[in-house]
Amino acid sequence: MVKNAKVAVTLGDPAGVGPEVIVKSLAAMPRHERRDFVIVGNSKALERACRTTGIDLRFGPSASEDGSTIAVDEVALDGSLPEIGKVSPIAGDASVRYISRAVELAMSGDADVIVTAPINKEAMNLAGHHFDGHTGLLAHLTGSKSSFMLLASDRLNTIHVSTHVSLRGAIERAKTDRVIATIEAGHNHFVRLGKKPRIAVAGINPHCGENGLFGTEDMEFLTPAVELARAKGIDVVGPISADTVFARAYNGAFDLVIAQYHDQGHIPIKLVAFETAVNVSLGLPIDRVSVDHGTAFDIAGTGKANHANMLSAIAYAQLMARSPRQRA
Ligand SMILES: NC(=O)c1ccc[n+]([C@@H]2O[C@H](COP(=O)([O-])OP(=O)(O)OC[C@H]3O[C@@H](n4cnc5c(N)ncnc54)[C@H](O)[C@@H]3O)[C@@H](O)[C@H]2O)c1
Ligand SMILES: N[C@H](C(=O)O)[C@H](O)COP(=O)(O)O
């Protein structure tokens, strides 16, 4: 068991609210706990966030014993510090290189877990890094065949069969094999955290297609996936109509809902737990937890960004670091 988990926190897009929520979170924790963190990014961006928020923190290449200096693993910007609140390829490129460096730390054992501040996907793609977000990029960097996005909160958890694709693409992806793989990834995660989860699969069509009246995908692909997963000993039911399954889970009937596409799972979670829900990447050889909000360019540089979500991500990351992975 890891005692004091070493947490690598990536800065996110330096033009967004990432640096602000990081410095606010560090300032909110007892000084000695700051020794467990290394920020992967640029001190200049952190210092700017300190000025914005009126926070007094010191950064250096390594943490001091008493936690008064916070460790920064410097990743040089390819240009000057990007302007706050603007999409920029320099910021997009930097945000990818922070993640890449954090993966090196995690793969080598120099970090137990990665916590990520938000990146801007437009900026990342403008810089020539053609990924759909952290989840796909992390799969690429770790040589993983697939990765899954879990959104976790106190009363509602949902893992997605697909995420950053068009609705048309999502329907194409909601096939039996992929649904089973998603059920298994979610199941294994909960088992790792010490719980045998009760899982519900959300239908893809209105009322699960109503026996083919509104589409046949539920009976063709989702019902067999549930049957096959049950045969593997997983406590899973469905498909259940997506308009009610999240409310039932929120009220305690299920520990995890399998969402068929991005917004099906994201809307309910962000509605009930925008401040506290965290985004967890599953199916990778390393652990990564993130805030569930984005770069919020509309408020970046104002000091208004709420850091509660970053604190939740850090707490969930520490929980994962204390929970050993199951051997295959
Ligand atoms: N973890 C991530 O890296 C992540 C997550 C979500 C979105 N994104 C990316 O962020 C960019 C902007 O996305 P968006 O505009 O759809 O969503 P967003 O979460 O950045 O903003 C949505 C709304 O929530 C507010 N908000 C967000 N974070 C807040 C905070 N900490 N405190 C107070 N208010 C906050 C914003 O001001 C805005 O009004 C996109 O490129 C998107 O892909 C990244
Ligand atoms: N859909 C994610 C969310 O809202 O939390 C977000 O875009 C981040 O995705 P990645 O973790 O793949 O960057």
TrEMBL record:
A Pfam family reported for this protein in Swiss-Prot or TrEMBL: PdxA
Coiled coil ranges: none
EC code(s) of this entry: 1.1.1.262
Keywords for this protein: Metal-binding, NAD, Oxidoreductase
GO MF term set: 4-hydroxythreonine-4-phosphate dehydrogenase activity
InterPro entries in the record: PdxA_fam
SUPFAM superfamilies in alphabetical order: Isocitrate/Isopropylmalate dehydrogenase-like (SSF53659)
Spans through the membrane: none
Protein name: 4-hydroxythreonine-4-phosphate dehydrogenase
Organism: Rhizobium mongolense
Source taxonomy: Bacteria, Pseudomonadati, Pseudomonadota, Alphaproteobacteria, Hyphomicrobiales
